Automatic annotation (TrEMBL), chain A:
Keywords: Cell membrane, Membrane, Transmembrane, Transmembrane helix, Transport. Its main location: membrane. This is Peptide ABC transporter permease. The lineage of its organism: Bacteria, Pseudomonadati, Pseudomonadota, Gammaproteobacteria, Oceanospirillales. SUPFAM superfamilies: MetI-like (SSF161098). It is found in: Cell membrane. CDD domains: TM_PBP2 (cd06261).
From TrEMBL, chain B:
GO terms for molecular function: ATP binding. Its EC number is 7.4.2.9. Signal peptide: none annotated. This is ABC-type dipeptide transporter. It is a peripheral membrane protein. The lineage of its organism: Bacteria, Pseudomonadati, Pseudomonadota, Gammaproteobacteria, Oceanospirillales. Residues 6-255, 279-523 form the ABC transporter domain. Belongs to the ABC transporter superfamily. PANTHER family: DIPEPTIDE TRANSPORT ATP-BINDING PROTEIN DPPD, OLIGOPEPTIDE TRANSPORT ATP-BINDING PROTEIN APPD. SMART domains: AAA.
């Protein structure tokens, strides 16, 4: 088990290296720079600034310097948020993003799994068509369309919920962003759960369970549910990645002080170090989450063992 | 005659499909007395499994049942679903054909057996555990104390079927329905499971409804037999009576469907077409970054010589390495040791070196359902090899060759526009043979080509293979676990076990005078009917 974890982490290093390198150079290829404001800076001052941040060096040199610092755990200073290091900003923003993303995942599972099970049990009935039709809608409409519409409807027209802001994570402020973030995942999970439940219900060991004289409730709860959830479990890795990228948009729309917002604003401001910091952080997060999901899988399915 | 335990009276089962109604069982009547074994025999599509599943009322919702199924006078078609659940697994229970998938993969076997005891006897905790241990012991699971907490995937197929039996017998049912309980198992394991069922039947005094396609098991196992075809009962009676004086043609055909005859010998000095020396195949089981990988040797140093026009039979049980060896011979798998095809040393040949030879070395696989692409028409499947190996042929010439090869395997060439799912298992296997044959090969690897087929269909495929071999002087390596088929087709036979050859010789000598204990055990298990006194 331990050596498996070590192996997986070692395998993550080249992945991260590619991600970091690609985003480093892509970022620099984008026109403009961190000090292009509306007000043109005097050339001498800009030159000084560039020198102070080593931006006057040749690109490969800058790349090596950045990688060297990164190895020591230093994400560097932010160009735009003066007096803050990138590490500070991520540390500030992460709790917000974590709460948002965690709640969205929880909501997606809590709604998606029962929806899928219900649709599978009522297969090819109105209930099934209604649930799956809704799910298809959830997949088809992107969250940057749903989020403003929800804000407009529940926030502006009905006035039930605030249209944005964090407010220290108060419940009313959480509702709209969490729901907007979760909708697509609810839909995916519901569809996946329906398909795998139907497959499991047709399997031989379910026939055995019925032949034992169990009633439908026992057949479903004891025998069908857990195997049917396995595909959903392995989807959680990609789902978490989806939630993270989704939260970049959602945080921006609802004005939440999470990492996603720093990421977007950092990109618009050409705040090289901030963007790079968030990219690296996201990369590590996704790799770790996938690993955790795979390890969880072995808890659920005795046929999977990472002895090695 | 004592009163019957189970009485089936004019049972009909219809499936209501979107395309119309299909009658699977068309008015079947029979009865089983307490403690008796009744065999329900038939080939695929005869309705035997539908009948047994109808008894359990486990058919899908689209099934319509009429007639009566009386257990001790109580009509099971009329009782409530709740009453039915109290009976299932309690008064009567069932074991299935698929031991590998019939147990819940996520639950320990102890829990799965205890569940029945809890459901019907209200037993739990140590009481249930004691009974589970007793059952595991009775069904011959070694070390029950340890095995009780095993997961199904940690057990072999035979052991899983034993667990299924333990589960079915937990509440001492009066009737056990055994639906092809040994079909998926190796012959030696089959014999063990049948012996076990018979012992347990005596101990518990239960009746057994034994469903099978294999008449050789019936003679040994059942007192009475019912023969089904196309959803109807064509013949029934005492087993000895039916075997000795079959009334119906179909029964006679089934009894006669054992492959017979043997292959005409090939001259001793016929040229060697394919030979292997010290062939070994390894599968890596554990990769290491540094040092040697761990590996499992599936084929452990095998020598064989195949002469032109010969059939070399390779027999063995699952896991013996026979299919692996076959694939290594065609270099579909990497192997060590020397391989020669005619005068060419092909040991180190990679894919591109092998490609020109592929037309001459063809293969037919076991699974007629999985090995033909469902998205291609039969004509496309057969002509695909021609496109690769004979690019000079134009469309008309290819078409002509496809038609010719379909005629060769006795299929209507007009069917080449159809897709594989429109064909039966036997027809698909003919298509697979036509696909190989169209390239005019010298050598055919036949990997269990008849194992998925009914006996009567097997016969016709074997006849076809014989005919083609004779006509084109083809050379076969014939892999099978079915000794009767191997005997009918082979010149020489290799008996494999755990990757090694146990015994090797002419088919005649292996079947007449086996020397090794393992070969004897295989033969004994395979030719049950021959060894019984039924004849």
């Amino acid at each position: 088990m331990l050596s498996y974890i070590a192996k997986r982490l070692a395998m993550a290093i080249p992945t991260l290296l590619i991600v970091i390198t690609a985003s480093f150079f892509l970022m620099r290829v984008a026109p403009g720079g961190p000090f292009d404001g509306e007000r043109q800076l005097p050339p001498e001052i800009e030159a000084n600034l560039m020198a102070a941040y080593h931006l006057d060096e040749p690109l490969p040199m800058q790349y090596l310097r950045y990688m060297g610092n990164l190895l020591q755990g230093d994400f560097g200073p932010s160009f735009k948020y003066k007096d803050f290091s990138v590490t500070d900003l991520i540390a500030q923003g992460f709790p917000v993003s974590l709460e948002l993303g965690g709640l969205a995942i929880a909501l997606a599972l809590l709604l998606g799994i029962p929806m899928g099970v219900m649709a599978a049990l009522k297969r090819n009935t109105t209930v099934d068509y209604l649930l799956m039709g809704t799910a298809l809608g959830g997949i088809a409409v992107p969250n940057f369309v749903i989020a403003p519409l929800m804000a407009l409807f529940f926030g502006v027209m009905l006035g039930w919920l605030p249209v944005g802001g964090w407010n220290g994570g108060a419940l009313p402020n959480l509702v709209l962003p969490v729901v907007a973030l979760a909708i697509q995942q609810i839909a995916y999970i519901a569809r996946m759960m329906r398909a795998s439940m139907i497959e499991v219900l047709g399997s031989h060991f379910i026939r055995t369970a019925r032949a034992k004289g169990l009633n439908e409730r026992q057949v479903i709860w004891r025998h069908a549910l857990r195997p049917a959830m396995l595909p959903v479990l392995s989807y959680l890795g990609p789902a978490i990645a989806g939630i993270i990228t989704g939260s970049v948009v959602i945080e921006q729309i609802f004005g939440l002080p999470g990492i996603g917002r720093y990421f977007v604003q950092g990109a618009l401001n050409r705040d090289y170090t901030l963007v790079m910091g968030t990219v690296v952080f996201y990369g590590i997060l996704i790799v770790l989450m996938n690993l955790i999901v795979d390890l969880l899988y072995s808890l659920f399915d005795p046929q999977i063992r990472y002895d090695d | 005659m004592s009163t019957p335990l189970l009485e089936i009276d004019n049972l009909k089962v219809d499936f209501e499909l979107p395309t119309g109604t299909v009658s699977a069982v068309k008015g079947v009547s029979f009865s089983i007395r307490p403690g008796e074994t009744l065999a329900l025999v038939g080939e695929s599509g005869s309705g035997k499994s539908v009948t047994s599943t109808a008894l359990m009322r486990l058919l899908p919702e689209m099934a319509r049942i009429s007639g009566a199924i009386r257990l001790d006078g109580e009509d099971l078609t009329q009782v409530s679903a709740a009453r039915m659940r109290r009976l299932r697994g309690n008064e009567f229970s069932m074991i299935f054909q698929e031991p590998m998938t019939s147990l819940n993969p996520l639950h320990r076997i102890g829990r799965q057996i205890a569940e029945v005891l809890h459901r019907h006897r209200g037993m739990s905790g140590s009481q249930a555990r004691a009974r589970v241990l007793e059952l595991l012991h009775q069904v011959g699971i070694p070390e029950p104390e340890r095995r009780i907490s095993s997961y199904p995937h940690e057990l072999s197929g035979g052991q899983r079927q034993r667990v299924m039996i333990a589960m079915a017998l937990a509440c001492e049912p009066r009737l056990l329905i055994a639906d092809e309980p040994t079909t998926a198992l190796d012959v030696t394991v089959q014999a063990q499971i049948l012996d076990l069922l018979r012992d347990l039947q005596k101990r518990y005094g239960m009746a057994i409804l034994f469903i099978t396609h294999d008449l050789s098991l019936v003679g040994r196992f059942a007192e009475r037999v019912c023969v089904m075809r196309y959803g109807e009962l064509v013949e029934s009676g005492e087993t000895v009576e039916v075997f000795n004086h079959p009334q119906h043609d179909y029964t006679r055909m089934l009894l006669d469907a054992e492959p017979r005859g043997s292959k005409a010998a090939v001259a001793e000095d016929a040229p060697v077409l394919l030979s292997g020396q010290d062939v070994r195949v390894r599968f890596t089981t554990k990769k290491r970054l540094f040092g040697k990988n761990d590996y499992f040797e599936a084929v452990r140093g095998i020598n064989l010589t195949v002469r032109r026009g010969q059939t070399v039979g390779i027999v063995g049980e699952s896991g013996s390495g026979k299919s692996t060896l076959g694939r290594a011979l065609l270099r579909l798998l990497e192997s060590q040791g020397q391989l020669r095809f005619e005068d060419t040393d092909i040991s180190g040949f990679d894919k591109s070196h092998m490609r020109p030879l592929r037309a001459r070395m063809q293969v037919v696989f076991q699974d007629p359902f999985g090995s033909l692409s469902p998205r291609m028409t039969v004509g496309e499947i057969i002509s695909e090899g021609l496109r690769v190996h004979f690019p000079e042929l134009d469309r008309r010439e290819r078409e002509a060759r496809v038609i010719e090869s379909l005629q060769e395997v006795a299929l209507d060439p007009a069917m080449r526009k159809r897709y594989p799912h429109e064909f039966s298992g036997g027809q698909r296997q003919r298509i697979a043979i036509a696909r190989a044959l169209v390239l005019k090969p010298d050598f055919l690897l036949l990997d269990e080509p008849t194992s998925a087929l009914d006996r009567s269909v097997q016969m016709t495929v074997i006849e076809l293979l014989r005919h083609l071999q004779h006509k084109y002087n083809l050379t076969y390596v014939f892999i099978s676990h079915d000794l009767a088929v191997v005997r009918a087709l082979s010149d020489t036979v290799l008996v494999m076990k755990e990757g090694q050859v146990v015994e090797q010789g002419s088919a005649e000598s292996i079947f007449r005078q086996p020397r090794e204990a393992y070969t004897k055990a295989l033969l004994k298990a395979a030719f049950l009917r021959d060894m019984d006194s039924v004849a």
